[in-house]
């Protein structure tokens, strides 16, 4: 292969332009084998007017770039082809341009006009790629052009172009940080975008440019939460990480009370030595506890937790990890457990994934051991695991060890000690040491096991054991003088310096327990002093000093000898130590006051070392982050803030114009481009997303034919204007509405909640939602008016949309809407139909037909929609209420949250929950209505008191409706 | 996010580099080579290596290191997962992901990398979308392109990119409409010296090959969905439906994809009496001993089937890493062939099929280094096998229905059980 391609390469260099031989695959390895120095032939090919030759040349150039060869001298020849018609040539030229533009700034400018033209192209792919390349050229001169292009693209019709604009923001920011303020404006605008395509990219831009501007998120928080499931996986990771930080600044710690309790509980459990302190502590805690108000989770906090949970099922490990860290940092303790299973599942993935996951699990197990305890066996080690994975699993196992499972874990450790992987064995011995220090019951067992290891044939194992035994013995030396004796014998054989040093230190420290052996060990050591490693030498000096102080009769001369040897040692540390020790312990006439205290100084009681996990306290880094993995702050890391003491105002997340509260402007609104998010949708798939999609679809289909270029931005400006005026209008209306509410005469108000009738995926692009318009249904007053909105987001038009009754419950009746003959692609239509639900919340099962298909759909009415407002005076109300006592009256006590203590809020919430009208001028808050079918009265009273619980009373002769209504209104009022 | 990517082969040469922001000198890889030298085994190179100005995040697949250069904070799993996705895409495009394949298709590789990341942030990673942007190289297309000068780069924005079903393109057409599902389960076991099971887990996947015209909407239901309590889905699966009805409802991607993977463990979350333990389909009798003072060791191994529901155990392969002191093994196999590599001390025994009437065994002696003391450690035995027509967890697909299209597809389902990390300690 290489020979033949080299041949043709050669030919290419010599023969005239236009030979078909150039057509061979350029990447076929020829380039790798032949050494290309001259680029003349490439230039000729690029200058030719045949696309195939140009392509050929570009392929070879790209292959050279891939290998890291410098091809910058071809820049002028390549840049000429930027406007080439052949799309592959063009793409490869882009690759080249982006790679070398920085080095050849002046020449790169030649290409700019092409991109500027591309930005106006009717094809969205070309607009996007022009912006992509333009923003990737790192030439400072064009910063203003880039800024302009980004601003324009941010209001492009195509979400794909808007996504590209979001990607371009960090590029421009890294080129010229001074543009920050302008870029933030663009980010703010794009954050308000409702398409899932844009969401991930713009949050990424936000994180790179202005992560500190948390205030930009408020208005978009609920929308982001709701869109999250549909965002592409990489965007999900970025959004979840950002929302974790956001939540830490905006919500209260859900575990605060538990934290206090827990601390109290733990200290009693481990029986700390200061018992009386503890009582005081607990008193304080009780105080702190009683001072705190009962914790109620912010509904937005709950929303985040609820909407991220399904993502634990993602196939993408990064998404699972992101959700796991979110739960770890934000969820109430009782709920964190759900992440364990998902994380354990990741352990079956590639070893790199395991490595990262295990690091995070290790940190989590320190704080929340119980969470992973059921999965203990999933962390058992296989001989085929790579060493770094083994060590991490060992760490997790050690953290999970408790009184109950320690025997299983130790048995498992015993098999690990026989492993052939010696690094792993050493780590196991360390782990046994840690288990022994933490769990008192097994300390002796562990110690015995480790002592047995001292006779192991492998020196590394013995050495590691010695080091660990030393630490364990320090905890209770008096019991274990035989072990110390045993270890003293080891000095003859063991060569590992660290182990020798440890033994010597032990003998010195506890020389009183082995009074006969210690001087002998010193004698042996003195003989070999000169050949020892430095750390051993230091310990010999220490041993000598300690023995001199306790048993100077036997060891005086030996000590002198050792100190003399040390005096002439090569290492200055050792010389220094020797000089210092000599001054301290050997009494001379000149010696200072210190030598009196020598014994106290050297033989002071030393605290036992605490064997701690290296993962302790790592959780102050956001889990899953690079900084956490490395345990140092990486560049660009955003600190995870502490929970606030008092929750910031939750109303900042309210979007000022809750459009769904109005029904009158609904139809109007649908025709326009909606700028505000649509968060009421519990499905997480909001209407505007869809409409934007369909818009762009239609745009792309029409774009190919017609000249639509310049109109894109105009149109969107127009839409902005329109939405501005819309807003004003809405504000006015809202004012008006609130007046209405105060006067208590309002009838159709409250939230108009949309429900999905047909999902756009099931409907193949046809998307249908319905809402209860609360208007009287004129053809039949015993029917509930249901407003249905069809949106066609498919590429083709939908024909003859109609409903057919399928299986209605007995008594139910339906008045269909007139058939929609044609619904063109991208359009939407609204119709009203009537349903007689027979005063029950049974769903009406219908069949939705198009020209080609039938879908089974069902309309489920909330109980509050089964009634119409009825006007009555307070006296009438009281009279009617008097007649509906006993079985027909349902009373429920409730605790109203602070937010809806005032009259206005209560009225709004009740009216949103049920289609009732307020009895004007009532002393209490009274509402009246009649059920649609039978016209039975429904009377609702909310009695609030200054102190104590409020009371909700419902009088209705239909008891089923009454009970269901109580539940709904209660929910509406207390949430 | 991701600054640059370097591809390093097993001999330590950088054979491809790609930069998404300004160029990072390839000398940054020296830190990686240092770490590589320190690591005893190729898989022990730490996946994340900090250097003074950058961070290197690498994955090892097909004996190629994919080294990504990072400049600032980014979740490491994000990069690792992305790199694996790159490898999967290469495999999808070129059949294999080897150094030769990448070098042969360097232009396509470059075009792919260009589409997959923009400024270091993933742009299009869904293989359906990529295939519309850049057509995979086939012999025929290469020929046609050579003659006509046409390209393998798409001109239109892939429909999936904007649709609500990004994993499926529109206008798919097949003459034979077929949907195949493979339920493949791998069983991970550790069995201790005495033969008792320490851990047993099943990792299952359902891989699908769906070639259906139009926009079919499939539902797949199971006889015993309770088994699946720890699952992860392809994004196409409607999670709400699963939560509510335990039915997999989805619009499938076109071609091969992994519909779901699941995990069944013996230890947690199981209703007592339902199936409290994972069944172990084979057992091993072993006797591997070394005597003090003698330079001989005994090796005796017998395999047998158990709990296989009458299905045959096939493609059995036993391997064991013998202690360093073993010089040679002199064994005789009742069935199959064995090899012993005196350098790596790896003993492998290709057994083939287990015949329940005549159990396969491997017996004989091992010679140890003269004068060396008895090895402390006993080798562990790793076993591989396959059982066709059975899912060891007992998972059974009930039915597959298709909505939204009128034709009748051909449906098929296959079950298989394999040994995953099946380890016997001795």
UniProtKB/TrEMBL annotation, chain A:
Residues 664-678 have a biased composition (Basic and acidic residues). Keywords: Cytoplasmic vesicle, Golgi apparatus, Membrane, Phosphoprotein, Protein transport, Transport. Residues 274-284, 714-736 have a biased composition (Acidic residues). The keyword NADP does not apply. Residues 731-842 form the AP-3 complex subunit beta C-terminal domain. Residues 1-32, 270-291, 637-736 are annotated as: Disordered. Subunit of non-clathrin- and clathrin-associated adaptor protein complex 3 (AP-3) that plays a role in protein sorting in the late-Golgi/trans-Golgi network (TGN) and/or endosomes. The AP complexes mediate both the recruitment of clathrin to membranes and the recognition of sorting signals within the cytosolic tails of transmembrane cargo molecules. AP-3 appears to be involved in the sorting of a subset of transmembrane proteins targeted to lysosomes and lysosome-related organelles. This is AP-3 complex subunit beta.
From TrEMBL, chain B:
It comes from the Eukaryota. Signal peptide: none annotated. PROSITE patterns: CLAT_ADAPTOR_M_1, CLAT_ADAPTOR_M_2, MHD. Pfam families: Adap_comp_sub, Clat_adaptor_s. One of its GO terms (cellular component) is clathrin adaptor complex. Its main location: Golgi. One of its GO terms (biological process) is intracellular protein transport. This is AP-3 complex subunit mu-2. It comes from Gadus morhua. The lineage of its organism: Eukaryota, Metazoa, Chordata, Craniata, Vertebrata.
């Amino acid at each position: 292969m290489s020979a033949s391609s080299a041949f043709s390469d050669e030919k290419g260099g010599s023969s005239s332009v236009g030979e078909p031989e150039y057509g061979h695959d350029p990447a076929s390895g020829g380039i790798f084998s032949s050494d290309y120095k001259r680029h003349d032939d490439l230039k000729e090919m690029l200058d030719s007017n045949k696309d195939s030759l140009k392509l050929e040349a570009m392929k070879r150039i790209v292959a050279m770039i891939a290998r890291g060869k410098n091809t910058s001298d071809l820049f002028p020849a390549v840049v000429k082809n930027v406007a080439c018609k052949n799309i592959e040539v063009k793409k490869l030229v882009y690759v080249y341009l982006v790679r070398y533009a920085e080095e050849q700034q002046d020449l790169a400018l030649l290409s700019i006009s092409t991109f500027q033209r591309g930005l106006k192209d009717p094809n969205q792919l070309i607009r996007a790629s022009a912006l992509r390349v333009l923003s990737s050229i790192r030439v400072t001169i064009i910063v203003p052009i880039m800024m302009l292009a980004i601003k324009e693209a941010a209001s492009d019709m195509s979400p794909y172009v808007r996504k590209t604009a979001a990607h371009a923001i960090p590029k421009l920011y890294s080129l010229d940080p001074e543009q920050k303020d302008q870029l933030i404006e663009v980010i703010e605008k794009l954050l308000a975008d409702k398409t899932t395509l844009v969401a991930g990219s713009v949050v990424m831009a936000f994180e790179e440019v202005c992560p500190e501007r948390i205030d930009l998120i408020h208005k978009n928080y609920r929308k982001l939460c709701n869109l999250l499931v549909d965002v592409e996986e990489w965007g999900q990771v970025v959004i979840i990480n950002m929302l974790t930080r956001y939540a830490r600044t905006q919500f209260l710690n859900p575990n605060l009370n538990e934290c206090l309790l827990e601390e109290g509980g733990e200290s009693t459990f481990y029986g700390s030595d200061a018992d009386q302190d503890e009582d005081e502590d607990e008193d304080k805690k009780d105080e702190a506890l009683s001072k705190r108000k009962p914790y109620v989770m912010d509904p937005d906090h709950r929303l985040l937790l609820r909407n991220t949970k399904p993502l634990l099922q993602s196939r993408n490990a990064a998404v699972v990890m992101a959700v796991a860290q979110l739960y770890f940092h934000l969820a109430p303790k009782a709920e964190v457990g759900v992440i364990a299973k998902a994380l354990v599942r990741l352990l079956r993935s590639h070893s790199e994934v395991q490595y990262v996951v295990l690091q995070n699990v290790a940190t989590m197990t320190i704080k929340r051991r119980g969470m992973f305890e059921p999965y203990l066996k999933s962390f058992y080690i296989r001989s085929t695991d790579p060493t770094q994975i083994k060590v991490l699993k060992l760490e997790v196992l050690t953290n999970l060890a408790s009184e109950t499972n320690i025997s299983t874990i130790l048995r498992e450790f015993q098999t690990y000690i026989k492993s052939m992987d010696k690094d792993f064995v050493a780590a196991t011995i360390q782990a046994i040491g840690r288990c022994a220090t933490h769990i008192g019951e097994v300390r002796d067992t562990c110690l015995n096991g480790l002592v047995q290891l001292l006779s192991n044939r492998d020196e590394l194992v013995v050495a590691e054991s010695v080091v660990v035994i030393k630490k364990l013995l320090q905890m209770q030396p008096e019991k274990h003088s035989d072990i110390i004796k045993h270890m003293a014998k080891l000095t003859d054989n063991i060569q590992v310096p660290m182990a020798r040093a440890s033994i010597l230190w032990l003998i010195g420290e506890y020389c009183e327990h082995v009074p006969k052996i210690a001087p002998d060990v010193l004698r042996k050591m003195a003989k070999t002093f000169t050949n020892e490693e430095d750390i051993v030498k230091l310990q010999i000096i220490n041993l000598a000093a300690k023995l001199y102080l306790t048993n100077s009769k036997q060891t005086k001369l030996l000590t002198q000898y050792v100190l003399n040897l040390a005096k002439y040692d090569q290492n200055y540390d050792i010389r220094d130590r020797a000089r210092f020790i000599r001054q301290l312990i050997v009494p001379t006439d000149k010696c200072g006051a210190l030598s009196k205290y020598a014994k106290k100084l050297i033989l002071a009681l030393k605290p036992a070392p605490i064997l701690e996990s290296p993962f302790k306290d790592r959780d102050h880094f956001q889990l899953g982050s690079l900084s956490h993995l490395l345990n140092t702050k990486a560049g660009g890391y955003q600190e995870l803030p502490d929970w606030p003491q008092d929750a910031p105002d939750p109303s900042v997340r309210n979007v000022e114009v809750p459009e769904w509260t109005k029904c009158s402007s609904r139809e109007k609104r649908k025709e326009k481009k909606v700028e505000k998010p649509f968060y009421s949708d519990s499905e997480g798939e909001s209407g505007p997303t869809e409409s934007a999609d369909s818009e762009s679809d239609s745009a792309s289909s029409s774009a190919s034919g017609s000249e639509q270029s310049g109109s894109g931005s105009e149109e969107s400006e127009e839409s902005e204007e329109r939405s501005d005026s819309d807003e004003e209008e809405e504000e006015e209306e809202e004012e008006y509405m609130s007046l209405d509410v105060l006067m208590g005469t309002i009838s159709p108000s409250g939230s108009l909640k949309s429900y999905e009738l047909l999902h756009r995926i099931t409907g193949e692009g046809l998307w249908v939602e319905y809402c209860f318009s609360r208007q009287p249904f004129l053809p039949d007053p015993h029917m509930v008016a249901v407003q249905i909105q069809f949106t066609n987001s498919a590429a083709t038009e939908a024909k003859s949309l109609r409903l057919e009754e399928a299986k209605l419950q007995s008594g139910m009746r339906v008045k269909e809407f007139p058939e929609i003959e044609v619904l063109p692609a991208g359009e939407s239509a609204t119709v009203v139909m009537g349903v007689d639900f027979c005063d029950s919340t049974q769903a009406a099962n219908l069949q939705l037909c198009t020209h080609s298909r039938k879908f089974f759909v069902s309309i489920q009415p909330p109980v509050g929609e089964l009634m119409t407002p009825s006007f009555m005076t307070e006296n009438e109300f009281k009279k009617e209420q008097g007649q509906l006592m006993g079985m027909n009256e349902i009373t429920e006590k409730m605790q109203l949250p602070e937010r809806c203590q005032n009259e206005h809020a209560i009225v709004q919430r009740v009216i949103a929950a049920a289609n009732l009208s307020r009895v004007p001028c009532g002393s209490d808050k009274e509402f009246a209505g009649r059920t649609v079918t039978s016209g039975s009265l429904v009377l609702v009273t909310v009695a609030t008191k200054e102190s104590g619980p409020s009371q909700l009373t419902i009088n209705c002769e239909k008891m089923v409706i009454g009970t269901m209504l109580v539940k709904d209104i209660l929910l509406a009022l207390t949430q | 996010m991701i600054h640059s990517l370097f591809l390093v082969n097993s001999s330590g040469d950088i054979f491809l580099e790609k930069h998404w922001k300004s160029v990072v000198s390839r000398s940054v890889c020296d830190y990686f080579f240092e770490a590589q030298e320190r690591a005893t085994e190729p898989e022990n190179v730490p996946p994340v290596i900090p250097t003074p100005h950058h961070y290197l995040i690498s994955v090892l697949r097909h004996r190629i290191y994919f080294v990504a250069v990072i400049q600032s904070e980014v979740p490491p799993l994000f990069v690792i997962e992305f790199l694996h996705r790159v490898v999967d895409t290469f495999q999808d495009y070129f059949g294999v992901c080897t150094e030769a394949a990448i070098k042969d298709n360097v232009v396509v590789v470059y075009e792919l990398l260009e589409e997959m990341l923009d400024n270091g942030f993933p742009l299009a990673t869904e293989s359906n979308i990529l295939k519309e942007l850049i057509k995979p190289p086939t012999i025929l297309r290469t020929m046609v392109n050579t003659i006509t000068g046409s390209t393998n780069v798409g001109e239109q924005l892939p429909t999936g990119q904007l649709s609500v079903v990004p994993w499926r393109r529109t206008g798919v057409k097949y003459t034979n409409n077929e949907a195949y599902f493979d339920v493949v389960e791998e069983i991970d076991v550790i069995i201790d010296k005495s033969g008792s099971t320490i851990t047993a887990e099943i990792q299952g996947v359902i891989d699908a090959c769906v070639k259906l015209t139009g926009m079919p909407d499939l539902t797949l239901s199971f006889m015993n969905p309770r088994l699946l309590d720890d699952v992860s889905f392809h994004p196409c699966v409607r999670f709400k439906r699963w939560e509510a009805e335990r039915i997999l409802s989805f619009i499938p991607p076109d071609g091969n994809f992994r519909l779901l993977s699941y995990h069944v463990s013996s230890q947690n979350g199981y209703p007592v009496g339902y199936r409290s333990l994972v069944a172990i389909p084979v057992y091993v009798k072993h006797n591997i001993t070394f005597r003090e003072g003698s330079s001989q060791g005994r090796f005796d191994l017998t395999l047998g089937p158990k709990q296989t529901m009458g299905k045959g155990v096939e493609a059995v392969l036993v391997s064991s890493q013998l202690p360093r002191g073993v010089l040679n093994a002199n064994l005789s196999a009742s069935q199959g062939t064995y090899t012993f590599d005196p350098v790596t001390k790896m003993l492998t025994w290709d057994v083939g099929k287990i015949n329940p009437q005549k159990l396969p065994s491997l017996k004989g002696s091992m010679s140890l280094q003269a004068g060396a003391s008895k090895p402390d450690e006993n080798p562990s035995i790793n076993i591989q096998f396959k059982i066709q027509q059975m899912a060891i967890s007992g998972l059974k697909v009930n039915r597959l229905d298709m909505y939204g299209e009128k034709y009748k597809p051909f449906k098929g389902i296959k079950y298989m059980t394999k040994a995953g990390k099946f380890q016997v300690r001795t």
